[in-house]
Amino acid sequence: MGEPKRSFKGNKSALPSKPCTVCQRPMTWRKAWAKNWDEVKYCSEACRQQGKR
After folding, report:
1. Which residue spans within 11-50 are E strands per DSSP?
2. Are 19 and 26 in contact (CB under 8 A)?
3. How far apart (Å, rounded) are the C-alpha atoms in residues 21 and 16?
4. pLDDT class of 25 with cuts at 50, 70, 90
5. Are the C-beta atoms of 27 and 6 separated by less than 8 Å?
6. Quick one: pLDDT at residue 22?
7. What are the helix (H) ranges across the chain?
8. How far apart are CA 53 and CA 43, in angstroms?
């Protein structure tokens, strides 16, 4: 996926998204995940903890 920063013009629907591996809710790209977007699996700390059980 290309750099989301270039295509983002105030429209969040243009950002990439993928489902959380635990709850299957869609996760939209965040700047904090820019360097490791391919490794992001969980939408929240709660899902991360539930996924490790």
Report:
1. 17-19, 26-28
2. yes
3. 16
4. very high
5. no
6. 95
7. 4-7, 45-51
8. 16
Q: Where are the domains of the chain?
A: 18-53
* Amino acid residing at 52: K
Measured over the CA atoms of residue 30, residue 33, residue 36 and residue 41, the dihedral's sign is negative
Amino acid identity at 16: P
The angle subtended at Cα 26 by Cα 29 and Cα 50, nearest 5°, is 105
Q: Which residue matches tokens 């959380």?
A: 20
Name the pTM for this structure: 0.68
Please tell me which residue, 5 or 42, carries the higher pLDDT value: 42
